[in-house]
From TrEMBL:
<dbReference type="InterPro" id="IPR003829">
    <property type="entry name" value="Pirin_N_dom"/>
</dbReference>
<dbReference type="InterPro" id="IPR014710">
    <property type="entry name" value="RmlC-like_jellyroll"/>
</dbReference>
<dbReference type="InterPro" id="IPR008778">
    <property type="entry name" value="Pirin_C_dom"/>
</dbReference>
<protein>
    <submittedName>
        <fullName>Pirin family protein</fullName>
    </submittedName>
</protein>
<dbReference type="Pfam" id="PF02678">
    <property type="entry name" value="Pirin"/>
</dbReference>
<feature type="domain" description="Pirin N-terminal">
    <location>
        <begin position="65"/>
        <end position="140"/>
    </location>
</feature>
<dbReference type="InterPro" id="IPR012093">
    <property type="entry name" value="Pirin"/>
</dbReference>
<dbReference type="InterPro" id="IPR011051">
    <property type="entry name" value="RmlC_Cupin_sf"/>
</dbReference>
<dbReference type="Pfam" id="PF05726">
    <property type="entry name" value="Pirin_C"/>
</dbReference>
<feature type="domain" description="Pirin C-terminal">
    <location>
        <begin position="202"/>
        <end position="304"/>
    </location>
</feature>
<comment type="similarity">
    <text>Belongs to the pirin family.</text>
</comment>
Amino acid sequence: MSNPVIQTIPLGFPWQIQDPFLFAVYHLDHYPKGNGEMGPEPELLKGRNMGSDFDPTLKWRMYHGTTIPGFPYHPHRGFETITIVNKGFCDHSDSLGAAGRFGEGDVQWMTAGLGVQHSEMFPLLHDETDNPLELFQIWLNLPKANKFVEPHFKMLWHEDIPVIKEGNAQIKVIAGNYKDTLALSPAPDSWAANPKNDVAIWNILVEADTEYTLPKSNSEVTRTLYFYEGSEIFIGDRKVNSKFGIVVNPAEDITIKIGAEKAHFLLLQGKPIAEPVAKYGPFVMNTEEEIQQAMDEYRLTQFGGWPWPYPDNVHEKDRGRFALYPDGSLVEKES
């Protein structure tokens, strides 16, 4: 039998990925109590590199925020962002006029397409207790044929996302099918929208001192299992510690023995797009000329401008989970 483990890679910031994915990052921040205005107390910000606070030695970071943690408005073109918020909340605002607050297991799927600006802020909603945040952001490429589609904003609410209990494992099926369980539909122009591309995003939790068998896929996909929390696992006679990505053979069922702590994984899988990739910051195209065009168009149009009062826009503190779509339709959920 062939070795199912092709390669192991340490999990840095961001994670190392494979086509059709472009970028993946894991945020785990133990944010303190809020100051009443959805940020930390001002004295806690002393000594930080405000506006560029990514220090991995700290319990929590402000990222590009200066008063509220997060990422004030910035542009994207040519790919999709998939934001999974397991703990805490994210406030979204964009140049289409769309907005939302999502968290506690919700997923936002945004197709940037021909161009959009958005902000992603992490409001500290609780003033009497801490505000932990656990979030993944994944960039999924768009093929050349879809680079200039109209931007699209979609919410996958946690109440609707399939979660499978299989023995001692729990599998949250964000994209792709897990055996006979179908995920919710992705954004319509996504590479994931065609079942032939076999895109899968699964968040997997397995209890300690048990086994889990990852079911095989087709041999044309890239497949990486990110072991982001736990102690150690064993695949055959191969020991893998946590904080490692595991590139595996997609054509084999893979039995994983879990060590002394429960194990958390994120699986990213998909058929490669296999087209040239030109990247510059928030723009992902096929050629350097297209990158220059994106920069020129952004300078001229701001991708529709910014209809919100602040670059780091957040919503009312007592607002629950909601999504306001560009057509004005509103969905509100219980928190």
